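User: Sequence in, structure out. Go.
Assistant: Echoing your sequence, followed by the structure tokens.
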Amino acid sequence: MENEVKRDESLPLVSVVVPCYNHEKYVKETIESVINQTYKNIELIVIDDGSKDGSVEVIKHMISACEQRFLRFEFRHRENKGLSATLNEMVDWAEGKYFTGCASDDILLPFKISLLVEKLESLDENYAVAFGDASFIDDNSNEVFIDRKTGEYTSKEQGSKQFLKYYASERDFDYRDENLFGSYKTLLAGNYLPAMSYVIKLDKIREVGAWTSGNTIEDWEMWLKLSKDYKFAYIDEPVALYRWHDSNTCKTMKFELVRDSLQLLEEEKNYAFSKGYKSAFYATLVNLVIQLRIHNKTMLIKKLLQYSINPVFVYLFVLKLIHKIKKY
């Protein structure tokens, strides 16, 4: 770990936040990756969200190195409030021009902040956020390839090692197209953006009201809010490493993610319709409702009854079922 002081207050201040929950195995490596950023004007905010393992002790052992490295370092640990509430707390605490987060099991590549801040500084006020890509790693920080169909580790020939290629592979647009990347229409079909690979203007987060406490799909919520009024920049190279393991939220909270996605999507209905995205709205709705058959059949029946009088929903739902049957 590099402990040398790296400060240059002539640069825009970047607030880096690390929300931690039960990641004693990984959080040291995460914080080290922030310490090792080439960018020289960073404040680091770490909140332990009620971990039940040894995460707090691991973080405490790093306090000295963090105080040496950063313009400002803050750490608190308290009872569990959930990720969205924790992020809102961090936004209230942050003092930077720019804001970026990293889950306590992921890793930032050394040039991430420098690269993305430079990109945003070169663009006009129409841009709120800049992204890079991310690469997949396993429990031991080794590069891995993920099978799109199974979500399991696989060979280089059969899988993807890049986040955006994996999550946008079945979308009908090229995520490298600057006119489409981060657009409202593409995001209406679901989130595909890597949460560990962005730098965002802090005032834009505050402008859209930050996150909804209790919401498990905080990333999708934020990107939908911002995409209504702002553009998203993209640099086509990995700037972070995403750890793919059995404790990922997408694996441990599947029903909650579908439930909250449905609620968020339904809240977007009026805006989506006003922009002419009625078919895109219902296509996403059908995809989410079908997922309920695995997670909550009672809610599935409720949603089918709710939308059974809508011909667009029924048509797309039947098409989706036929497609699934043909696949088998």
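User: And one key feature?
Assistant: The mean pLDDT is 94.
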